[in-house]
Structure formats: structure tokens, C-alpha cells
Amino acid sequence: MQDLTVALRQFRKSPGFAATVILTISLGIGANVAIFTLVHAVLLKSLPVANPASLYRIGDTDDCCVSGGFVSDHGDFDLFSYKLYRHFEESAPEFEELAAFQSGHGTMNVRSGPASARSERTEYVSGNYFSTFGLGAYAGRVLIPNDDRPGAAPVAVISYQAWQAAHGADPSIVGSTFYIKSQPVTIVGIAPPGFFGDRIDSDPPALWIPLNDEPLLNGETSILQQGEANWLYALGRVRPGVGIGGLQAKLSNTLRQWLATQTRYTINGNDARIPKQYVVLTPGGAGVQNLQQETGSGLRLLMAISGLVLLVACANVANLLLAKSATRRTETSIRIALGAARSRLIRQLLVESVVLGCAGGAIGIAVAYGGARMILSLAFPDATQLPIQASPSLAVLAFAFLLSLITGMVFGIVPAWISSHSDPAEALRGANRATRDRASLPQRSLIVFQAALSLVLLVGAGLLTQSLRNVTHQDFGIETAHRYVIHLDPSGAGYTIARVPVLNEQLERELSALPGIKSLGLALYSPLEGDNWGERVYVEGRPDPGPEAENNSSWDRVSPHFFETVGQPVIRGRGFTEQDTATSRMVAVVNPTFVKKFFPNQDPIGHHFGTFEPKYSGDYEIVGVVADAKYSNPRDPVRPMYFRPGAQFNTGLKETRVISAETASMFINSITIRYTGDTASLESQVRRTLSNINPNLILSDFKSMDYQVAGNFNQERLIARLTTLFGVLALLLASVGLYGITAYSVARRTSEIGLRMALGANRGNVVALVLQGAFFQVGLGLAMGVPAALLGAHVMANQLYAVRSYDPFTLLAAVLVLFTFAGVAGFIPARRAASVEPMNALRTE
């Protein structure tokens, strides 16, 4: 307490110094705590369920959303059909319970009472979903196995967040009837607060629906009973004492045995692939870690970068303390002369440092809260019920406290050690007559250290900024200006496959009549919205390439004016026209990448190909080639892609699975509009038009094509901005540190500078002398920083797009920026030194 009292007295005597130190530390700690808040919430936190350590998922990667046949070429099964899930459940008593749930959340039209329909996120789950997690209901009850039986009354559980946000926490919701896809469903309960589902998602489900209600709601596009349609994740609670390795081997063997009984997996030579199939058991306490896999490397990179910023801040504060200790040298020397132990002095100075660190940490928590909120808004701009909280948890507060203590020790230990070794004789000689300055070398070393770290951060910021520019300004193959995208769900509005052609005609006619609309295109999905459909391609007249062949292609179903609307020109043959109807020959348009893969050195016009099975190889005739464009991941090369007319249904397909897939593809989900009018009124006009066509046909979302494309780069944009911010912060701290040590050095050398000027040195010589010392320290920092920057760039190479990790331009630019700031930081005290009057300087002697 005595040390604490003395520390507070010192801060009261020098409030400006204390405020500077606390502010510097708060920025460094605040940056780290903000990033750790997200790291803890995304990467380290378990689901709010009972005993998460005993939960294990069958699978280890994200293979959303529906796959037919073998899920992956390397044999790792992560998605399962309903039949395979039930087989696992029956043959693996090692699980106390094994639940299944939809791999990709759906969006359905939901109407409650007299209210208008709205679009809600939904998820199909098994009846033991909540009991597997050990969860009860907040109100009512959760789903039970009897709800998940064929013929059971349709029910659903609503999330606590959706209950509050969309229904005003009305308790009468329990037992009420919702109309989901026009089907009556009873809400039997409200999920507990804080439970957002089986994974961290920017838009978690509002409703959980039993798996066996899927045929009722999806009708003719149902996939529940299709043994080859893989669309479910499986997660269970393992019994105590069960060996995970042995259970994994058993499940892999069970998988192979089951596949061997399924015709889909044995025909066309596929049986040779069965021995390669396996599953991986992974800890499931944190749920399905899709978001963790997507953001993990970026968050770890930000954590490392914020740690470098904190080190720069600590070096800066250490320099301030070293300078401060010079003003207390007389006091320290007198204490030693009077018998104070060096350990006692070190303890006193460390207490001061720790108090400063804790004060900076307290303010840093407020900085972290604001920073975390900003990061979340940038990373998930469209999220409405994001399950990641910016408020610091107990773990985050503990991290902040521990970081504050460590920070106080780190920046205080060297100044405390040096100050405690002051010579008592200096108390008699006088501070200005000291024979040497013990703090000089550590201060200069800290400047070198700051310069090196600043260069690392500047190079990282430059590379990430250049990478962001490359990925966002690449040629996507489409036009985005004056284009707008709307999404809707005809199936959710009650439309059947028979009514879809009439609906499509109405949509084109009614929307095209709106003023300002130049063209519009209907599609299964629009470019770069995050969707992708793919099938294996078989070319007519060629032998079956075999199950190991890479003959996959993406595909889309579009209307006649779609290519014109998105700005994707037809470069050979023709596009689709109104004559490509349900009764005309089935045609397709392909992109050049498709041509290179399947028809190299050939004119593809007039050739035929098919999908699903080799026997369908003659189904579609190629009538045109459209320019390459990116439809899925913009970071990957353009995929082979073919397009089919929205009006043509392939009636020659025989198998249940392929008929279901063909049926599902007939329901358009997006409409792209080329519009040149007043955008403020466009959305309301579109909503009104859809309501006139069918009140249940609601608009899921409305956005510009520019916004849709930009949404693919939220993570890259966030990391680049934060890295630049941290780099600038580190540069400013290093510059302030260099200025401080240079000014301190000039003050101590006042008599020397006066003597030099008295002996004939001019002001230019003095400025050059001071700048030489400043640039020498920065030069040493560059010598250390360049190899470190190259190593750091190599480590983050997977975050870069179309830019080399050893890019010389970025490195040169960072060096020039650092030298420029060093020049400014050194020139100010150098100019002050040059203004010293020789007689005044000599008079101090």
C-alpha cells in the first residue's frame, strides 16, 4: 500500500506524463482485447449446452449444402443422407444420442396469424436434437423423437432471439399456428436464451423443424428419403469410456459396408471408390466449425498483428519511463545513499509500472468494446441476430487484467533495473554533472526495436491492401453498375412445378413494365451470391471417363435476357430466346472454360452432353458460348460452367434423385434487374409488384450487384483495414518514441552542441549531426525489420491474392514511409538544437 501511495503521488505530480503513458497503453491493450474478444467468441467458446466435452461430430469439414453420391474425391465423408444417418444411429450404441441437422440453413416464407408473410431462416433437425445438446425449453417444450415420425403433426421450436425480435416476446406464441410454406405448423416451444443453434452463424435459424416434416414442406422437391442425397451433419454425445479412435474406425467401416449396399454407389465403376471412404470424429462442443474455418486464419493473423502493436506501445512507454527516471536520478541516488535496498527501489518502480498498465487496461476495455463492435459491423454488415457479442466476457476481462499486469512488468522492468543502479555520488555531484547515462543504450535499442516492428506492420498492411485491391478490382466477367438483385422463394409461396412457368412469365412481364427497368433476368442463382450447383458431365460419343475423372461442372438455369442483364456477352453461337420452350429441343450455353475442359481444340457448337449418368450424355445440345464469369468463389479461377433455359424440364430422367434435383432447379431464386431510374423507389415498386402477383410471394432481400459482389470480401477488407490501422498506430508510436529520445538526447548534449557551435559548427552541421543519430537508429531497425517483414509476409501468404509475399515495391514503400516519419520526428528536435545560443549553452557549465 505504501508503494501504491507513492506511485499515485508521483502521477499526481506529473499528470501529463501519466496520461500519455495510460493512453499509449490503452491503445495497445484495447487492440489486443478487441481481437481476443472475437477470438474467444469464435474460436475458443463452446456452445451453451450441457457437458460440451462429450459431444463429437462425425465429420471435420464444411461441405454445405446438398451433394449426390460420393461427397468428396479424397474419401472424407462429412455429409450424410437421412438413411445413412439412421443407419449410424442404429449401429453405433457408443453414442448416448446421435442427432442430425441440415447442413445449410434454409429460408422459408412464414406467416403467423393475420400478419403478412416474412422470410425466416429455418433448419431441419432430428427429434432428439435438443436432448442431444442437453437443452430444455424456455417456454413450452422442445422437439422430441415422436415429433420426428412420419405422419406426426407438424411442429416447430422458435429461437428465443426471434421470439423477442419478431414477436415482441408474446407468450401466446407457444401453441399458436404458423404457416410455413402455406402449411400449418404448431409452435410447441421457445428455445432457451443464448442458444443460437449448432454452429456460429451470422444469421442463425429462427425455427427448428423436425426432419420428417421436410416432405410436407418441400413437396415434390423432397430429399428426405433419397439414400444418395447427402445433406445432413451428424453430431452425438459419446458414452463415458468409449475410445474415440476405435469408434472412428468402426464408423468408417460401417460407412463402407452401407455404401456397398446402395446401387448409386456401386454402378459405373464407383464400387472401386468405396474402400477409400472414411469419416473423422471431431470434438463437437463448439458445434460445426464452418465460421471458425473461414475466419480462423484471419483472426489469428489479427491477434499476431495487435500483439506487435502492443510491443511497440510497451517500447514507447519504456522509453518514456527511462526519460522520466533521468529526472528522478537525484531522488533515487539519495535513497540509495540513505540505505534503500535496490530490490526495494525496483519494487517501487514496478508497482508504478503495473498501476499504469492496469489503468491503461481499464481504459483499453472501453476501447476494446468499441473496437469489437466496429469489427463485427464490418465483418457481418447484414447480420440481424449475430450470436457473437462485443461485450467482454469474464474470460475476456481476465485476459485484459492478465495482459495489463504483464504489460506493466514488460515496459517497467528495464527502467526499474537501470534506475535502481544509480550512483549515489551523483546526488552530491548534481544531475547535470553525471559522468554517464545508463539509460542511453536501452533507449536507443528500444527505438531500433520499434522501427523493426513498425516496418513489419507496414509491409503487412501494404501487402494486404494491395491484395484487397487486386481481388476487388479483378475482372469478374459481369457488369455491376446499375444492376440490382432480388431474391424470392416461389416454392415457399406455395407454387408447384406445374405453376412455375406461368409465374416466371408474370414476373418478367410485370417487372419489365416498371419505369426505368431496361432488362431483367431470372436465374436459379445470380453471380457471386454464394451459391453453386454442380454435376458431372458426360459428352456424347465418348466413353465413360470413370468415377475418378475430374468431369464436374457448375451450372445455372437462366431466362432469355439474363446474359444481357448481367453484362455477360455471347461470344459464339447464340444465347437463349423465347423459342427455347418446354417442348423445343433441350439446349445449353457454355463458357470458354467448359469448352477447354470438355472440347479442347474443337468447335463446341452442335455437340451434345448430359449430366447425372453416362446414359444421359446426349440430352443437351450446345448452341452458344458465353464469356467467362465468376459465379461462386471470386478468389478461385473461373469454373467450367453451362447454362440451361429456365423453361426446359428434362422429362427423360428416370431416377428419383435426379428427377428431384431437376425439379428443384426449376424454381428460380433470384432476379437481376438493369435499372437506370431513381433507386430510392425501386425496392418499394418491386415489393408492390410481387404482392400484386401473389401476397405470399415476398422479397427475401434487395441489394445492388455492387453490394453483392463486395460482400464476398468483407473478411479481406476488415483485415486490410485493421492491419493498416495497426500499422499507422505503430508508426506513430515509433515516431513519437524517436522524437522523444532525440529531444532527450539533444537536451543532454546542450553544452556539447554549444561548444561545437562556438568552435565554428553552423546550424546545418548541428541538424545533420542530430539527424544522423536518428537515421542510424532507424537504419538498424530496418536491418532487423526487413528479414522479419519478409518472414511475416511468407507466413500470411495464404491471405494474399495475386501479390507476391516478397513484393519489392511494397517493401520499398514501407521503408520510405518509415524514413519519412523518422526524418520528421528527428528534424524537430534537430532544428531546436540548431537554435541553441552557444553562450547560453556554455553558461550551464
Spell out the blueprint of helices and strands:
Elements: H1 2-13, H2 15-44, E1 55-58, E2 67-68, H3 82-91, E3 95-102, E4 106-112, E5 118-125, H4 129-133, E6 139-140, E7 155-158, H5 160-167, E8 177-180, E9 183-190, E10 207-210, H6 214-218, E11 229-230, E12 232-238, H7 244-259, E13 281-283, H8 290-327, H9 329-337, H10 342-379, H11 394-420, H12 425-429, H13 440-472, E14 483-488, H14 500-512, E15 517-523, E16 533-539, E17 552-558, H15 562-566, E18 570-573, E19 587-590, H16 592-598, E20 608-611, E21 620-626, E22 641-645, H17 656-665, E23 670-675, H18 679-693, E24 699-704, H19 705-710, H20 714-748, H21 750-758, H22 763-795, H23 808-834, H24 838-843
Parallel strand pairs: 5-10, 7-9, 17-22, 19-21
Antiparallel strand pairs: 1-12, 1-13, 2-11, 3-12, 4-5, 4-8, 6-9, 7-10, 8-9, 14-23, 14-24, 15-23, 16-17, 16-20, 18-21, 19-22, 20-21
Helix pairs in contact: 1-2, 1-10, 2-8, 2-10, 2-11, 3-7, 8-11, 8-13, 8-20, 10-11, 13-20, 13-22, 13-23, 14-18, 20-23, 22-23
Helical proportion? 40-55%
Which secondary-structure class do the elements indicate?
alpha+beta
Average per-residue pLDDT, rounded, comes to 90
From the spread of the alpha carbons, the general shape counts as elongated
Helical stretch tally: 24
How big is the Rg?
34 Å
Strand content: 5-15%
How are strands sequenced across the largest beta sheet?
Answer: 4-5-10-7-9-8
- Taking pLDDT < 50 over at least 5 consecutive residues as the criterion, the unreliable ranges are 431-436
The biggest sheet, with number of strands, parallel, antiparallel or mixed sense and barrel status, is: 6 strands, mixed, barrel
Q: How many DSSP E strands?
A: 24
- Span between N and C termini? 41 Å
